[in-house]
Amino acid sequence: MENPELVIKTCSSLEEHEIPYSSSQGPMSEELLTEDQLRRKLKFFFMNPCEKFRARGRKPWKLCIQILKIAMVTIQLVFFGLSNEMVVTFKEENTIAFKHLFLKGYVDRRDDTYAVYRQEEVYDHVTFAIKQYLDLRNLSVGNHAYEKKGAEQSAMAVCQHFYKQGSIFPGNDTFDIDPEIQTECFYIEPRTPINDPRLEENQFNLTLDFHRLVTVEIMFKLKAINLQTVRHHELPDCYDFTVTITFDNKAHSGRIKISLDNDVSIRECTDWHVSGSIQKNTHYMMIFDAFVILTCLSSLTLCIRSVIKGIRLQREYVRFSHHRFRMKVSWADHMEFVNGWYILIIVSDVLSIIGSILKMEIQAKSLTSYDICSILLGTSTMLVWLGVIRYLGFFEKYNLLILTLRAALPNVIRFCCCAAMIYLGYCFCGWIVLGPYHVKFRSLNMVSECLFSLINGDDMFATFAIMQQKSYLVWLFSRIYLYSFISLFIYMVLSLFIALITDTYETIKHYQKDGFPESELHAFVSECKDLPTSGRYRLEDDDDLSVSMLCCCKQ
Question: Fewer Cβ close by (within 10 Å): the C or N end of the chain?
Fold first, then answer.
Protein backbone atom coordinates (compact mmCIF):
# COMPACT_ATOMS: atom_id res chain seq x y z
CA MET A 1 0.00 0.00 0.00
CA GLU A 2 1.33 3.35 -0.89
CA ASN A 3 1.96 5.93 1.78
CA PRO A 4 -0.71 8.68 1.85
CA GLU A 5 0.50 12.06 0.76
CA LEU A 6 -0.22 15.33 2.48
CA VAL A 7 -0.37 18.49 0.43
CA ILE A 8 1.20 21.43 2.29
CA LYS A 9 0.36 24.92 1.18
CA THR A 10 3.05 27.24 2.41
CA CYS A 11 2.96 31.06 2.60
CA SER A 12 5.20 31.33 -0.40
CA SER A 13 2.91 29.10 -2.46
CA LEU A 14 -0.45 30.72 -1.86
CA GLU A 15 -2.26 29.51 -4.97
CA GLU A 16 -1.19 26.22 -6.61
CA HIS A 17 2.35 25.34 -5.59
CA GLU A 18 2.27 22.16 -3.47
CA ILE A 19 4.96 20.26 -1.60
CA PRO A 20 4.51 16.50 -1.28
CA TYR A 21 4.99 15.17 2.20
CA SER A 22 5.88 11.58 3.02
CA SER A 23 7.01 9.75 6.12
CA SER A 24 10.56 9.63 4.85
CA GLN A 25 10.63 13.41 4.60
CA GLY A 26 9.01 13.99 8.02
CA PRO A 27 11.73 15.90 9.93
CA MET A 28 12.62 18.20 7.06
CA SER A 29 9.01 18.91 6.15
CA GLU A 30 8.14 19.55 9.78
CA GLU A 31 11.01 22.06 9.99
CA LEU A 32 9.79 23.80 6.85
CA LEU A 33 6.30 23.83 8.26
CA THR A 34 7.54 25.38 11.49
CA GLU A 35 9.34 28.06 9.48
CA ASP A 36 6.19 28.72 7.48
CA GLN A 37 4.18 28.92 10.70
CA LEU A 38 6.63 31.40 12.23
CA ARG A 39 6.54 33.61 9.14
CA ARG A 40 2.77 33.77 9.31
CA LYS A 41 2.84 34.59 13.04
CA LEU A 42 5.39 37.34 12.48
CA LYS A 43 3.40 38.79 9.63
CA PHE A 44 0.27 38.80 11.73
CA PHE A 45 2.16 40.45 14.61
CA PHE A 46 3.25 43.38 12.42
CA MET A 47 -0.23 43.94 10.93
CA ASN A 48 -2.25 47.02 11.85
CA PRO A 49 -5.60 46.60 13.70
CA CYS A 50 -7.68 46.72 10.51
CA GLU A 51 -5.60 44.00 8.84
CA LYS A 52 -5.75 41.86 11.98
CA PHE A 53 -9.52 42.20 11.96
CA ARG A 54 -9.69 41.03 8.33
CA ALA A 55 -7.20 38.23 9.07
CA ARG A 56 -8.90 36.67 12.08
CA GLY A 57 -12.14 38.55 12.57
CA ARG A 58 -11.10 39.67 16.04
CA LYS A 59 -12.51 43.00 17.08
CA PRO A 60 -9.81 45.66 17.66
CA TRP A 61 -10.50 46.10 21.37
CA LYS A 62 -7.31 48.06 22.01
CA LEU A 63 -8.22 50.54 19.30
CA CYS A 64 -11.77 50.96 20.61
CA ILE A 65 -10.55 51.40 24.18
CA GLN A 66 -7.95 53.97 23.07
CA ILE A 67 -10.62 56.02 21.27
CA LEU A 68 -12.90 55.82 24.31
CA LYS A 69 -10.01 56.69 26.63
CA ILE A 70 -9.05 59.76 24.60
CA ALA A 71 -12.56 61.16 24.96
CA MET A 72 -12.91 60.32 28.67
CA VAL A 73 -9.45 61.52 29.71
CA THR A 74 -9.90 64.79 27.81
CA ILE A 75 -13.30 65.45 29.39
CA GLN A 76 -11.87 64.65 32.81
CA LEU A 77 -8.97 67.03 32.27
CA VAL A 78 -11.26 69.85 31.13
CA PHE A 79 -13.43 69.57 34.24
CA PHE A 80 -10.39 69.39 36.50
CA GLY A 81 -8.79 72.34 34.70
CA LEU A 82 -11.87 74.50 35.24
CA SER A 83 -11.94 73.56 38.91
CA ASN A 84 -8.21 74.14 39.29
CA GLU A 85 -8.53 77.50 37.54
CA MET A 86 -10.95 78.70 40.22
CA VAL A 87 -8.60 77.53 42.98
CA VAL A 88 -5.59 79.28 41.46
CA THR A 89 -7.57 82.47 40.82
CA PHE A 90 -8.81 82.50 44.42
CA LYS A 91 -5.28 82.04 45.77
CA GLU A 92 -3.75 84.74 43.58
CA GLU A 93 -6.49 87.28 44.21
CA ASN A 94 -6.28 86.75 47.96
CA THR A 95 -2.51 87.24 47.86
CA ILE A 96 -2.94 90.50 45.95
CA ALA A 97 -5.65 91.59 48.42
CA PHE A 98 -3.34 90.88 51.37
CA LYS A 99 -0.58 92.95 49.81
CA HIS A 100 -2.90 95.92 49.45
CA LEU A 101 -4.30 95.44 52.96
CA PHE A 102 -1.12 94.93 54.97
CA LEU A 103 1.66 96.65 52.99
CA LYS A 104 1.65 100.41 53.37
CA GLY A 105 1.48 102.28 50.08
CA TYR A 106 1.68 99.10 48.02
CA VAL A 107 1.20 99.44 44.25
CA ASP A 108 0.94 96.43 41.91
CA ARG A 109 4.27 95.86 40.21
CA ARG A 110 6.21 93.00 38.73
CA ASP A 111 9.65 93.82 40.10
CA ASP A 112 11.07 93.80 43.64
CA THR A 113 11.30 97.57 44.10
CA TYR A 114 9.00 97.60 47.14
CA ALA A 115 11.48 98.54 49.85
CA VAL A 116 12.21 101.05 52.63
CA TYR A 117 15.37 103.02 53.27
CA ARG A 118 14.87 104.76 56.62
CA GLN A 119 14.54 103.36 60.12
CA GLU A 120 11.35 105.33 60.73
CA GLU A 121 9.76 103.73 57.66
CA VAL A 122 10.40 100.24 59.02
CA TYR A 123 8.54 101.05 62.26
CA ASP A 124 5.71 102.69 60.32
CA HIS A 125 5.23 99.68 58.06
CA VAL A 126 5.23 97.24 61.00
CA THR A 127 2.68 99.38 62.89
CA PHE A 128 0.55 99.73 59.76
CA ALA A 129 0.40 95.94 59.27
CA ILE A 130 -0.60 95.42 62.92
CA LYS A 131 -3.39 98.01 62.72
CA GLN A 132 -4.72 96.55 59.49
CA TYR A 133 -4.75 93.09 61.05
CA LEU A 134 -6.70 94.27 64.10
CA ASP A 135 -9.23 96.16 61.97
CA LEU A 136 -9.58 93.41 59.33
CA ARG A 137 -13.32 92.94 59.73
CA ASN A 138 -14.00 96.60 58.93
CA LEU A 139 -11.50 96.82 56.07
CA SER A 140 -11.63 93.62 54.00
CA VAL A 141 -14.33 93.24 51.35
CA GLY A 142 -13.77 89.48 51.39
CA ASN A 143 -15.05 86.85 53.81
CA HIS A 144 -11.80 86.72 55.79
CA ALA A 145 -11.69 85.81 59.47
CA TYR A 146 -9.10 85.05 62.14
CA GLU A 147 -8.03 81.49 62.75
CA LYS A 148 -9.30 79.85 65.91
CA LYS A 149 -7.47 77.42 68.15
CA GLY A 150 -10.26 75.95 70.20
CA ALA A 151 -12.19 78.88 71.66
CA GLU A 152 -9.29 81.33 71.23
CA GLN A 153 -8.22 83.17 68.11
CA SER A 154 -4.62 82.78 66.96
CA ALA A 155 -2.38 85.79 67.48
CA MET A 156 -0.15 87.69 65.10
CA ALA A 157 3.57 87.04 65.66
CA VAL A 158 6.11 89.82 65.10
CA CYS A 159 9.64 88.42 65.19
CA GLN A 160 13.04 89.92 64.55
CA HIS A 161 16.11 87.84 63.68
CA PHE A 162 19.51 89.38 64.41
CA TYR A 163 23.16 88.52 64.99
CA LYS A 164 23.98 87.62 68.57
CA GLN A 165 26.89 90.05 68.75
CA GLY A 166 27.75 92.87 66.40
CA SER A 167 29.95 95.93 66.68
CA ILE A 168 30.45 97.51 63.28
CA PHE A 169 32.57 100.60 62.58
CA PRO A 170 32.76 101.17 58.81
CA GLY A 171 34.64 104.42 59.29
CA ASN A 172 37.50 102.60 60.97
CA ASP A 173 37.20 99.50 58.77
CA THR A 174 36.65 97.37 61.86
CA PHE A 175 33.91 95.06 63.08
CA ASP A 176 33.30 92.42 65.73
CA ILE A 177 30.44 90.04 64.98
CA ASP A 178 29.04 86.71 66.17
CA PRO A 179 27.11 85.15 63.22
CA GLU A 180 24.78 83.12 65.46
CA ILE A 181 21.18 84.17 64.77
CA GLN A 182 18.88 84.99 67.68
CA THR A 183 15.11 85.57 67.54
CA GLU A 184 12.80 87.75 69.60
CA CYS A 185 9.02 87.74 69.14
CA PHE A 186 5.96 89.40 70.59
CA TYR A 187 2.34 88.59 69.86
CA ILE A 188 -0.72 90.71 69.05
CA GLU A 189 -4.08 89.27 70.01
CA PRO A 190 -6.94 89.93 67.53
CA ARG A 191 -9.00 91.30 70.42
CA THR A 192 -6.49 94.10 71.04
CA PRO A 193 -8.30 97.47 70.64
CA ILE A 194 -7.38 99.33 67.49
CA ASN A 195 -6.90 102.54 69.52
CA ASP A 196 -4.45 100.92 71.94
CA PRO A 197 -1.90 103.65 72.84
CA ARG A 198 0.93 101.16 72.55
CA LEU A 199 0.36 101.10 68.79
CA GLU A 200 0.82 104.84 68.50
CA GLU A 201 3.86 104.95 70.76
CA ASN A 202 5.47 101.76 69.45
CA GLN A 203 5.64 100.16 72.89
CA PHE A 204 5.31 96.53 71.81
CA ASN A 205 8.96 95.78 72.68
CA LEU A 206 9.94 96.35 69.05
CA THR A 207 13.41 97.86 69.28
CA LEU A 208 15.51 97.19 66.20
CA ASP A 209 19.30 97.29 66.13
CA PHE A 210 19.74 97.81 62.39
CA HIS A 211 23.48 97.03 62.55
CA ARG A 212 22.68 93.48 63.70
CA LEU A 213 19.22 93.08 62.17
CA VAL A 214 18.84 90.31 59.58
CA THR A 215 15.07 90.09 59.02
CA VAL A 216 11.77 91.11 60.57
CA GLU A 217 8.87 88.73 60.03
CA ILE A 218 5.18 89.32 60.68
CA MET A 219 3.19 86.09 60.64
CA PHE A 220 -0.53 85.53 61.05
CA LYS A 221 -3.25 83.16 59.86
CA LEU A 222 -6.57 83.94 58.22
CA LYS A 223 -9.46 81.84 56.94
CA ALA A 224 -11.80 82.20 53.97
CA ILE A 225 -14.35 80.23 51.91
CA ASN A 226 -14.24 80.05 48.11
CA LEU A 227 -17.90 80.61 47.24
CA GLN A 228 -17.44 80.96 43.47
CA THR A 229 -17.42 77.17 43.06
CA VAL A 230 -21.13 77.09 43.97
CA ARG A 231 -21.99 78.60 40.60
CA HIS A 232 -20.14 75.71 38.92
CA HIS A 233 -22.02 73.06 40.88
CA GLU A 234 -19.10 72.25 43.18
CA LEU A 235 -18.92 72.28 46.95
CA PRO A 236 -17.06 75.33 48.31
CA ASP A 237 -13.66 74.77 49.91
CA CYS A 238 -12.41 76.26 53.16
CA TYR A 239 -9.00 77.92 52.91
CA ASP A 240 -6.35 78.56 55.57
CA PHE A 241 -3.95 81.36 54.68
CA THR A 242 -0.60 81.64 56.46
CA VAL A 243 0.60 85.15 55.65
CA THR A 244 4.24 86.12 56.19
CA ILE A 245 5.49 89.68 55.70
CA THR A 246 9.29 89.78 55.54
CA PHE A 247 11.57 92.82 55.92
CA ASP A 248 14.82 91.55 54.38
CA ASN A 249 18.02 93.21 55.62
CA LYS A 250 20.45 90.36 54.92
CA ALA A 251 22.57 92.47 52.60
CA HIS A 252 22.84 95.44 55.02
CA SER A 253 23.02 97.64 51.94
CA GLY A 254 20.76 100.42 53.23
CA ARG A 255 17.78 98.95 51.38
CA ILE A 256 15.32 96.68 53.21
CA LYS A 257 13.16 94.78 50.76
CA ILE A 258 9.59 93.98 51.81
CA SER A 259 7.77 90.89 50.53
CA LEU A 260 4.53 89.10 51.38
CA ASP A 261 4.22 85.34 51.05
CA ASN A 262 0.90 83.52 51.26
CA ASP A 263 0.95 79.79 52.05
CA VAL A 264 -2.43 78.20 51.32
CA SER A 265 -3.98 74.98 52.58
CA ILE A 266 -7.39 73.71 51.45
CA ARG A 267 -9.68 71.47 53.46
CA GLU A 268 -13.28 70.39 53.71
CA CYS A 269 -15.60 72.73 55.57
CA THR A 270 -16.81 71.17 58.84
CA ASP A 271 -20.43 72.34 58.74
CA TRP A 272 -22.12 73.26 55.48
CA HIS A 273 -25.46 73.20 53.74
CA VAL A 274 -26.13 74.05 50.10
CA SER A 275 -29.56 73.91 48.53
CA GLY A 276 -29.85 72.19 45.16
CA SER A 277 -28.08 69.31 43.45
CA ILE A 278 -24.43 70.11 44.10
CA GLN A 279 -23.89 66.99 46.16
CA LYS A 280 -25.30 64.84 43.33
CA ASN A 281 -23.02 66.50 40.79
CA THR A 282 -20.01 65.74 42.99
CA HIS A 283 -21.01 62.08 43.13
CA TYR A 284 -21.51 61.97 39.37
CA MET A 285 -17.99 63.31 38.81
CA MET A 286 -16.51 60.71 41.14
CA ILE A 287 -18.41 57.97 39.27
CA PHE A 288 -17.08 59.33 35.99
CA ASP A 289 -13.53 59.28 37.42
CA ALA A 290 -14.08 55.66 38.45
CA PHE A 291 -15.03 54.81 34.85
CA VAL A 292 -11.86 56.54 33.65
CA ILE A 293 -9.82 54.37 36.02
CA LEU A 294 -11.54 51.20 34.74
CA THR A 295 -10.94 52.22 31.12
CA CYS A 296 -7.28 52.92 31.79
CA LEU A 297 -6.91 49.61 33.63
CA SER A 298 -8.38 47.79 30.62
CA SER A 299 -6.03 49.61 28.28
CA LEU A 300 -3.09 48.92 30.59
CA THR A 301 -3.90 45.21 30.74
CA LEU A 302 -4.25 44.83 26.97
CA CYS A 303 -1.05 46.77 26.24
CA ILE A 304 1.00 44.81 28.80
CA ARG A 305 -0.39 41.61 27.25
CA SER A 306 0.70 42.79 23.79
CA VAL A 307 4.18 43.71 25.04
CA ILE A 308 4.56 40.27 26.65
CA LYS A 309 3.42 38.60 23.42
CA GLY A 310 5.99 40.63 21.48
CA ILE A 311 8.80 39.59 23.82
CA ARG A 312 7.77 35.93 23.58
CA LEU A 313 7.68 36.12 19.78
CA GLN A 314 11.07 37.84 19.81
CA ARG A 315 12.60 34.98 21.79
CA GLU A 316 10.97 32.44 19.50
CA TYR A 317 12.40 34.17 16.40
CA VAL A 318 15.86 34.45 17.98
CA ARG A 319 15.90 30.75 18.85
CA PHE A 320 14.68 29.80 15.38
CA SER A 321 17.28 31.99 13.63
CA HIS A 322 20.06 30.57 15.74
CA HIS A 323 18.92 26.96 15.26
CA ARG A 324 17.99 27.07 11.56
CA PHE A 325 20.30 29.68 10.04
CA ARG A 326 23.06 29.88 12.69
CA MET A 327 22.42 33.63 12.51
CA LYS A 328 22.67 36.19 15.28
CA VAL A 329 19.72 38.58 15.29
CA SER A 330 20.72 42.26 15.19
CA TRP A 331 19.78 44.72 17.91
CA ALA A 332 17.55 46.64 15.48
CA ASP A 333 15.55 43.47 14.77
CA HIS A 334 15.31 42.82 18.50
CA MET A 335 13.73 46.23 19.03
CA GLU A 336 11.20 45.63 16.25
CA PHE A 337 9.28 43.43 18.67
CA VAL A 338 9.14 46.11 21.38
CA ASN A 339 6.34 48.46 20.37
CA GLY A 340 7.23 51.91 21.69
CA TRP A 341 3.63 53.05 21.32
CA TYR A 342 2.50 50.42 23.81
CA ILE A 343 5.14 51.61 26.27
CA LEU A 344 3.85 55.16 25.79
CA ILE A 345 0.26 54.03 26.41
CA ILE A 346 1.28 52.05 29.51
CA VAL A 347 3.00 55.09 31.01
CA SER A 348 0.01 57.32 30.22
CA ASP A 349 -2.38 54.78 31.75
CA VAL A 350 -0.39 54.56 34.98
CA LEU A 351 -0.22 58.36 35.27
CA SER A 352 -3.93 58.69 34.49
CA ILE A 353 -4.92 56.10 37.10
CA ILE A 354 -2.85 57.75 39.84
CA GLY A 355 -4.06 61.22 38.81
CA SER A 356 -7.71 60.10 38.79
CA ILE A 357 -7.35 58.63 42.28
CA LEU A 358 -5.87 61.92 43.52
CA LYS A 359 -8.67 63.84 41.79
CA MET A 360 -11.28 61.73 43.57
CA GLU A 361 -9.51 62.37 46.89
CA ILE A 362 -9.48 66.10 46.15
CA GLN A 363 -13.20 66.06 45.37
CA ALA A 364 -13.77 64.19 48.63
CA LYS A 365 -11.70 66.92 50.36
CA SER A 366 -9.26 64.31 51.68
CA LEU A 367 -6.32 65.78 49.74
CA THR A 368 -5.40 69.18 48.37
CA SER A 369 -2.49 68.19 46.07
CA TYR A 370 -3.68 70.17 43.07
CA ASP A 371 -0.16 70.58 41.68
CA ILE A 372 0.70 66.86 41.76
CA CYS A 373 -2.69 65.92 40.31
CA SER A 374 -2.31 68.54 37.57
CA ILE A 375 1.10 67.19 36.56
CA LEU A 376 -0.16 63.60 36.43
CA LEU A 377 -3.37 64.30 34.52
CA GLY A 378 -1.73 66.82 32.18
CA THR A 379 1.15 64.49 31.30
CA SER A 380 -1.13 61.48 30.80
CA THR A 381 -3.47 63.44 28.51
CA MET A 382 -0.51 64.70 26.50
CA LEU A 383 0.80 61.15 26.04
CA VAL A 384 -2.67 59.89 25.09
CA TRP A 385 -2.98 62.48 22.34
CA LEU A 386 0.56 61.76 21.17
CA GLY A 387 -0.49 58.12 20.87
CA VAL A 388 -3.10 59.12 18.29
CA ILE A 389 -0.23 59.63 15.84
CA ARG A 390 0.28 55.86 15.84
CA TYR A 391 -3.12 55.29 14.24
CA LEU A 392 -2.57 58.07 11.72
CA GLY A 393 0.66 56.31 10.81
CA PHE A 394 -1.33 53.43 9.32
CA PHE A 395 -2.09 55.74 6.40
CA GLU A 396 0.83 56.24 4.04
CA LYS A 397 0.37 59.99 3.58
CA TYR A 398 0.19 60.65 7.33
CA ASN A 399 3.02 58.26 8.14
CA LEU A 400 5.67 60.64 6.81
CA LEU A 401 6.00 62.60 10.07
CA ILE A 402 6.43 59.48 12.22
CA LEU A 403 8.98 57.91 9.89
CA THR A 404 10.97 61.15 9.65
CA LEU A 405 11.05 61.63 13.42
CA ARG A 406 12.06 58.02 14.04
CA ALA A 407 14.79 58.06 11.40
CA ALA A 408 16.18 61.46 12.41
CA LEU A 409 16.08 60.91 16.18
CA PRO A 410 19.50 59.20 16.61
CA ASN A 411 21.31 61.84 14.53
CA VAL A 412 19.40 64.65 16.24
CA ILE A 413 20.42 63.37 19.68
CA ARG A 414 24.08 63.15 18.68
CA PHE A 415 23.96 66.60 17.09
CA CYS A 416 22.31 68.14 20.18
CA CYS A 417 24.93 66.60 22.46
CA CYS A 418 27.68 68.26 20.47
CA ALA A 419 25.84 71.59 20.32
CA ALA A 420 25.16 71.41 24.08
CA MET A 421 28.90 71.47 24.79
CA ILE A 422 29.27 74.76 22.93
CA TYR A 423 26.09 76.12 24.55
CA LEU A 424 27.27 75.28 28.08
CA GLY A 425 30.63 76.89 27.37
CA TYR A 426 28.91 80.15 26.43
CA CYS A 427 26.66 79.89 29.51
CA PHE A 428 29.56 79.59 31.96
CA CYS A 429 31.54 82.31 30.23
CA GLY A 430 28.63 84.76 30.15
CA TRP A 431 27.73 84.08 33.78
CA ILE A 432 31.20 84.76 35.18
CA VAL A 433 32.15 87.68 32.91
CA LEU A 434 28.91 89.53 32.21
CA GLY A 435 27.02 88.67 35.41
CA PRO A 436 28.21 91.69 37.43
CA TYR A 437 27.31 94.08 34.59
CA HIS A 438 24.17 92.59 33.00
CA VAL A 439 20.91 91.73 34.78
CA LYS A 440 20.19 88.84 32.40
CA PHE A 441 23.45 87.08 33.29
CA ARG A 442 23.19 87.12 37.10
CA SER A 443 22.64 83.35 37.45
CA LEU A 444 23.25 80.28 35.29
CA ASN A 445 19.51 79.78 34.88
CA MET A 446 19.05 83.37 33.67
CA VAL A 447 22.02 83.02 31.31
CA SER A 448 20.57 79.88 29.76
CA GLU A 449 17.15 81.51 29.33
CA CYS A 450 18.70 84.61 27.76
CA LEU A 451 20.86 82.66 25.29
CA PHE A 452 17.99 80.38 24.31
CA SER A 453 15.87 83.47 23.64
CA LEU A 454 18.64 84.88 21.46
CA ILE A 455 18.75 81.65 19.43
CA ASN A 456 15.06 82.15 18.65
CA GLY A 457 15.58 85.80 17.75
CA ASP A 458 13.84 87.18 20.83
CA ASP A 459 14.82 90.30 22.79
CA MET A 460 18.08 90.87 20.94
CA PHE A 461 18.19 94.67 21.09
CA ALA A 462 17.34 94.76 24.80
CA THR A 463 20.14 92.26 25.55
CA PHE A 464 22.65 94.50 23.81
CA ALA A 465 21.27 97.74 25.27
CA ILE A 466 21.05 96.71 28.95
CA MET A 467 24.78 96.01 29.14
CA GLN A 468 26.45 98.48 31.51
CA GLN A 469 29.42 100.48 30.25
CA LYS A 470 31.28 100.90 33.54
CA SER A 471 34.16 98.82 32.20
CA TYR A 472 35.06 99.40 28.55
CA LEU A 473 36.96 96.10 28.41
CA VAL A 474 33.94 94.11 29.64
CA TRP A 475 31.63 96.07 27.33
CA LEU A 476 33.86 95.23 24.35
CA PHE A 477 34.01 91.60 25.43
CA SER A 478 30.18 91.49 25.65
CA ARG A 479 29.89 92.61 22.02
CA ILE A 480 32.30 89.95 20.82
CA TYR A 481 30.55 87.38 23.02
CA LEU A 482 27.01 88.18 21.81
CA TYR A 483 27.88 88.59 18.13
CA SER A 484 29.83 85.33 18.03
CA PHE A 485 27.10 83.41 19.88
CA ILE A 486 24.30 84.70 17.63
CA SER A 487 26.29 84.10 14.46
CA LEU A 488 27.37 80.62 15.50
CA PHE A 489 24.01 79.30 16.68
CA ILE A 490 21.58 81.04 14.34
CA TYR A 491 23.56 80.93 11.11
CA MET A 492 25.42 77.63 11.62
CA VAL A 493 24.10 75.34 14.36
CA LEU A 494 20.42 76.03 13.74
CA SER A 495 20.87 75.79 9.98
CA LEU A 496 22.67 72.46 10.31
CA PHE A 497 19.93 71.19 12.60
CA ILE A 498 17.25 72.09 10.04
CA ALA A 499 19.35 70.55 7.24
CA LEU A 500 19.60 67.33 9.25
CA ILE A 501 15.82 67.05 9.51
CA THR A 502 15.33 68.06 5.87
CA ASP A 503 17.82 65.46 4.63
CA THR A 504 16.05 62.73 6.60
CA TYR A 505 12.71 63.92 5.23
CA GLU A 506 13.95 63.70 1.65
CA THR A 507 15.37 60.23 2.30
CA ILE A 508 12.05 58.99 3.65
CA LYS A 509 10.19 60.42 0.65
CA HIS A 510 12.61 58.63 -1.65
CA TYR A 511 12.08 55.37 0.25
CA GLN A 512 8.32 55.73 -0.02
CA LYS A 513 8.63 55.86 -3.80
CA ASP A 514 11.32 53.21 -4.35
CA GLY A 515 10.79 51.03 -1.32
CA PHE A 516 12.39 50.90 2.13
CA PRO A 517 15.54 48.83 2.68
CA GLU A 518 14.57 45.55 4.30
CA SER A 519 16.17 44.21 7.43
CA GLU A 520 16.79 40.48 7.84
CA LEU A 521 13.62 40.20 9.92
CA HIS A 522 11.38 41.88 7.36
CA ALA A 523 13.02 39.98 4.52
CA PHE A 524 12.19 36.77 6.36
CA VAL A 525 8.57 37.89 6.91
CA SER A 526 8.12 39.16 3.34
CA GLU A 527 8.39 35.59 2.00
CA CYS A 528 4.93 34.98 3.44
CA LYS A 529 2.48 35.96 0.72
CA ASP A 530 -0.74 35.17 2.56
CA LEU A 531 -3.15 38.10 2.44
CA PRO A 532 -5.16 39.06 5.53
CA THR A 533 -8.31 37.94 3.75
CA SER A 534 -6.90 34.53 2.80
CA GLY A 535 -8.45 32.85 5.84
CA ARG A 536 -5.20 31.15 6.82
CA TYR A 537 -4.69 33.37 9.90
CA ARG A 538 -8.01 32.27 11.38
CA LEU A 539 -6.54 28.79 11.89
CA GLU A 540 -3.43 30.05 13.65
CA ASP A 541 -2.89 29.58 17.37
CA ASP A 542 -0.65 32.33 18.71
CA ASP A 543 0.50 30.49 21.79
CA ASP A 544 1.09 26.91 20.63
CA LEU A 545 3.29 25.79 17.78
CA SER A 546 2.65 22.16 18.53
CA VAL A 547 -0.62 22.25 16.60
CA SER A 548 1.00 23.64 13.47
CA MET A 549 0.02 20.59 11.44
CA LEU A 550 -3.63 21.31 12.07
CA CYS A 551 -3.21 25.01 11.28
CA CYS A 552 -1.28 24.93 8.05
CA CYS A 553 -1.89 21.61 6.40
CA LYS A 554 -4.66 20.26 4.26
CA GLN A 555 -5.08 16.56 3.73
Answer: N
Q: How far is CA 242 from CA 86, 133, 216, 245, 486, in A?
A: 19, 13, 16, 10, 46
Q: Could you tell me which of 390, 364, 465, 377 has the C-alpha nearest to residue 77? A: 377
pLDDT at residue 545 above 60? Answer: no
Query: Is 174 a member of any domain?
Result: yes
Number of domains within the chain? 3
Q: What is the pLDDT of residues 65-75, one digit of tens each?
A: 888 999 999 99
Q: Kindly give, in sequence order, each residue whose CB lies less than 8 Å from that of residue 75, ignoring residues fewer than 6 positions away.
A: 288
* pLDDT above 70 coverage of the chain, percent: 80
DSSP 536: G
pTM of the model: 0.70
d(CA 548, CA 425): 63
| Domain identity same for 402 and 386 | no
DSSP per residue, 394-454: TSTTTHHHHHHHHHHHHHHHHHHHHHHHHHHHHHHHHHHHHTTT-GGGSSHHHHHHHHHHH
* Residue 39 confidence class, pLDDT cut points 50, 70, 90: confident
Pairing of strands 237-248, 553-554: unpaired
Residues 257 and 134 in one domain: yes
For residue 297, give Cα distances in angstroms to 61, 292, 347.
Answer: 13, 9, 12
Sequence-distant (6+) residues with CB within 8 A of 208 are 119, 122, 123, 160, 216
Domain hosting residue 255, numbered range: 103-267
Please state, in angstroms and rounded to a whole number, the distance separating the CA atoms of residues 489 and 450. 13
Per-residue model confidence (pLDDT) at position 273:
66
Answer yes or no: do 75 and 171 share one domain: no
The residue among 553 and 226 whose pLDDT is bigger is: 226
Contact residues for 155 (Cβ-Cβ < 8 A; gap 6+):
187, 188, 189, 190, 220
Q: Which pLDDT band holds residue 21 (cuts at 50, 70, 90)?
A: very low
- Cβ–Cβ < 8 Å for 330, 519: yes
DSSP category for residue 519: P
Adjacent-strand bridge partners of 181: 163
